[in-house]
Amino acid sequence: MSSKYLHAALGLGLMTAFASPVLAQDAVRISQKGKQFSEKQLSLTSGQSVVFVNDDSVAHNVYTIVKGKKQDLGLQKPSEEGSIAFDSAGTYRVRCAIHPKMKMVIKVE
What we know:
Helix content: 10-25%
CATH class: Mainly Beta
């Protein structure tokens, strides 16, 4: 392999190695505690994800509609977490299927 291709391969490998931590930092963490979300409203840029962490003593079931499809994290027991990616601009209502008073709005630009 020529040194030109070797340098290109090494550069690509380094970019890949450092890309994952950067993407992980873009995720926003939202706590579920006291049967409510830690934020009532959240603004994101397209492509960001939200990690929903169950810091409560009861189970939750977070869901929203993304791109016309329901995104449902399913039953989250205490200390479990799950994420939803928001790739399209819009306003999303996030709910808990178990606790109807748990509501939050996510605006994606």
